[in-house]
Amino acid sequence: MSNATIKDIAKAANVSVATVSRVVNNGPKVGPETRARIVDLIETMGYRPNINARSLVTNKSSTIGVVIPDVADPFFAALANSVDKVARQHNTQLLISTGQLSADSELEAIKLLLQQRCESIVIHSKLIPNETLIKLFNDNPNFVLINRYIEEIAHRCIWLDNIEGGKIAAKSLINCKHLNIACILSNYDIEDPSLRLKGFTEQLKESNQDIDQKLVVYAEPTLQGGEAATQQLLAANTPFSAVFVYNDAMAIGAISTLEDNGFSVPKDVSVIGCDDVLLSRFSRPKLTTLQYPIETMAHHAAKLSLNIAVNVDDCQPQDASHPSPDILPSLKYTPVLIERESTAIKTD
Amino acid sequence: MSNATIKDIAKAANVSVATVSRVVNNGPKVGPETRARIVDLIETMGYRPNINARSLVTNKSSTIGVVIPDVADPFFAALANSVDKVARQHNTQLLISTGQLSADSELEAIKLLLQQRCESIVIHSKLIPNETLIKLFNDNPNFVLINRYIEEIAHRCIWLDNIEGGKIAAKSLINCKHLNIACILSNYDIEDPSLRLKGFTEQLKESNQDIDQKLVVYAEPTLQGGEAATQQLLAANTPFSAVFVYNDAMAIGAISTLEDNGFSVPKDVSVIGCDDVLLSRFSRPKLTTLQYPIETMAHHAAKLSLNIAVNVDDCQPQDASHPSPDILPSLKYTPVLIERESTAIKTD
DNA sequence: CAAATAAGGTTAAACGTTTACCCTTTTAAT
DNA sequence: ATTAAAAGGGTAAACGTTTAACCTTATTTG
Q1: How far is CA B21 from CA A56, B15, B18, B52, B311, in A?
Q2: Does the keyword tRNA-binding apply (chains A, B) (predicted)?
């Protein structure tokens, strides 16, 4: 019933398999009444083409792969979801493979996807070495790298300007007159935290401010990590009136811990996050954060990977305050500061 | 290079394809030195079997499908993640297909997965009619339904006792002396909200309490939905001192709106959520909620679907206060109340 | 009215595996 | 010394498609 093959249909319709194949694929060379008859049969016999057989001969899979560390993380889930939307618009099936934040797993995930004959893959990899990736990308013209920049394959990297992000955060905190500023960063061995820190400290230096090394702490980029990092900060006993946090989850964990310890946000300490996940609009206090346009970026990446013309409108909107320096669609995205309630001008 | 076929290996090793196939699949009938030689060649020539060709002949896919409404929802992401963990333990690739909360899409998603030759599928469907599902399950012995109970296929349904959940919530609120209790429910056309409401009102009746129909409102089960529902509640101008909310996202949206309107939680109104997503431990105030053991359930579902013996330890722990009535591993799970800070005994 | 073209098909090879069945050589048992 | 069995390996069909190449019958063109 559900496993009728093309031959069964051909026999029932009294035509060759080629003809059936043509109606299935909307090919030419088949008369209207024959087509109608076959369409009918396909419907009533519940025929569905065997993807494997098809892929075997066409060497295509109608499948787009996504490699992310973890499906459960909202940030990566948003990424995958965005790719999924593009995929379903183009009759493409989404395949997700998780890299678990280990170089071996990431590579394994890619190979798995390759084995499934995905010709397009959007890869979020932080741990595979540049050279390996470059080699991989040279063999596979439809791979796209998201959230990472490698010069040699720059035209297939969709990335966020982390340095600029750090600068924007610093500017905002400086404007609020903060002098003792802490940093909570991810302890994952990836470049994002250090780039953000770099931009942040550079900007601080422009105002002749320096960052106290005791005030930069590292932890897992999760709610719990934010909690742990904040406890560490508190234990150091070095006063601070503001903290720049690696992501929103950590920021919310930080706020939670701060308040548990009698500090009010933003009265006693200002907190600025990064990512602008949906939640940051609903936390108490509402979170000031750097918007990471991951959905747009993932959308862009998916289209690039599928070789679909990228519509300028789909990309980061030209913002008067943050004009993109490149011709659109640019592969570089810049975060935008979203000011809400967790930051304030320093009092006392 | 990366697309060497089994024939290439055979030629290089000076053996037949059958022999190569045997070493790839750890089959018998191949001598140790031949095996070593072939393994070597496979490595150096970067051979990876073509999954499509293999599936075509074996009619198996080493793939487990998951149908969920949406990847971006943390609840479903947790579900998928849990299935993924089981899958990778058993060398199985995860395939996610999204149902978008429409019966047609859900069915389409299943068919897509079937077309990819997934023999095992974990399905989260709320909208496909019972009969359709029953038929589908009779044809496909490895399908498992999660978060829904259909009597005819009960042995393949992993579900949560929503009625009991409603009762537990009601008891807790009654214990806190609340008399005017509101309900915020999902407006999706699924049975969960009505079952929870049913349990809730039944329990209320046992204490001779009744629920004011003006105090039960419906909205999207999201942060924004919680916001909207609460505004509706506030607009009705009927006082209430507690609210039972369909899920944690809505609950957090509700708290946010309540506080924006000058009500303090839990002083002025108690809020009880449902799901116990990670976030509920980090919201302000920390959320009292019904724990929905979705990870365990999904783990269980994945194993059931893959025909893997389900370990009793993996299932819901026997809790003295909530003994499971069935022999473990039970397919029915019961939510557990997690009391945190968003509920309190009624004052004034 | 012949020739050219279009329309609607068919045939068969190819895709890369797995596996039942067959064959040969070596080893063990009598 | 014979024979049986075991070990190691080869052959070829089959899985369900797509598609180039070919064929036949109308239809158009000059």
Answers
A1: 17, 11, 5, 15, 34
A2: no
Quick one: angle between helices B51-58 and A51-58, nearest 10?
Answer: 140
Q: Cβ of B281 and A93 within 8 Å?
A: no
What pLDDT, on a 0 to 100 scale, did the predictor assign at position A314?
52
Q: Are A53 and A268 a contacting pair, CB within 8 Å?
A: no
Both tokens assigned to A127? 């741990």
Using the beta-carbon criterion (under 8 Å), do A93 and B88 form an inter-chain contact?
A: no
Chain A residues with beta carbon closer than 8 angstroms to that of B93: 95, 97, 112, 116
**Does residue A99 carry a pLDDT above 90?**
no
In this prediction, residue A209 carries a pLDDT of 93
> What is B6-49's CATH topology?
434 Repressor (Amino-terminal Domain) (1.10.260)
pLDDT band, residue B166 (cuts 50/70/90): very high
* pLDDT tens-digit readout, A195-227: 999 999 999 999 999 999 999 999 999 999 999
Assign domain A59-160 to its CATH superfamily: Response regulator (3.40.50.2300)
Name the pLDDT band for B61 (thresholds 50, 70, 90): confident
Q: What is the mean pLDDT of chain A?
A: 90
Separation CA B80–CA B66 (nearest Å): 7
Average pLDDT, chain B: 90
The dotted CATH code for B60-160 is 3.40.50.2300
Q: Which of chain D's bases lie under 7 Å from a protein CB?
A: 7-12, 14-21
Domain ranges within chain B, ordered by starting residue: 6-49, 60-160, 162-292+334-338
Q: Which CATH architecture has domain A162-293+334-338?
A: 3-Layer(aba) Sandwich (3.40)
Query: Per residue in B81-100, is it b (16+ CB within 10 Å) or e — as a string?
Result: bbbbbbbbeeebbbbbbbbb
Nearest to A113 by CA among A128, A133, A129, A98: A98
The Cα angle at residue A218 between residues A216 and A220, in degrees rounded to 5: 150
Cβ-defined contact of B279 to A278 (cutoff 8 Å): no
User: Which of A11-15, B88-92, B312-316 is modeled with the greatest confidence?
Assistant: A11-15
- Strands B181-186 and B216-219 turn out to be parallel
pLDDT, position A274: 97
Would you tell me how many other CB atoms lie within 10 Å of the CB of residue B157?
21
Full 3-state SS string of B241-268: CEEEECCHHHHHHHHHHHHHCCCCCCCC
As a whole number, mean pLDDT of residues A34-53 equals: 94
